[in-house]
């Protein structure tokens, strides 16, 4: 039996070669595709709920509008994949390669992406509420207008990431690398940024009400017209930062704003 027929009939095709296969709208909930090669496959609008895609190759695969709720993608390679509008709620994406993927308007609520590589990926307008990005590589990723309420970004690498207009209220960004990150009009109220590196970050007009910036490095950051009411800047480094009133800080550590 050829692999495609085997998969559709039994939903089991571990290690199968299925590159560029046509599986649009396929019913594959709870399918076992561990270690399979699905590079370039068309899985748009496919039902892959609770599927086992552990260590599966999905490079440049078409997963637009696919249902991947609760799927196991631990260690999978989804580099360059198309996931626009896909639903990955509660999916396991630990240490998954998703570099350069298109994840616009994707649902990743409660998904586990710890240690994943999403550098240069597009996650604009995505639902990332309560998502876990602990230690993830998010360099130069696009999170513009994404919803990251209560997301865990502890120790994540967000250098050069675009977070303009993103909602990070209550998010944990402690120890995160946000050097040169773009955060104009971002909502960071009550977020945890203790020990975060925000050197040269753009935070113009950002909502920083009640944010915890204890020990954060804000040297040369731009805070023009940012709202810092109730923010904790204990031991934060501010030398060269552009303050909310437009003046340049000449103090090594923050003074009361």
Low-confidence stretches: none
**Quick check: average pLDDT?**
96
Number of strands: 0
Distance between the termini: 71 Å
User: What class would the helix/strand composition place it in?
Assistant: little secondary structure
Give the number of helices. 1
Helix content: under 10%
Percent range for β-strand residues:
under 5%
Spatial extent as radius of gyration: 20 Å
User: How would you characterize the largest beta sheet?
Assistant: none
| Shape type | elongated
* Succession of helices and strands: H
Helices and strands in order:
Blueprint: H1 3-10
Keywords for this entry:
257 residues; single chain; little secondary structure; 3% helix; elongated; 1 helix
Task: Please describe what this structure looks like.
- It contains one helix and no strands.
- Helix content is 3%, strand content 0%.
- It is low in regular secondary structure and 257 residues long.
Concise synopsis of the structure shown:
By secondary structure, the chain is low in regular secondary structure. The protein is 3% helix and 0% strand.
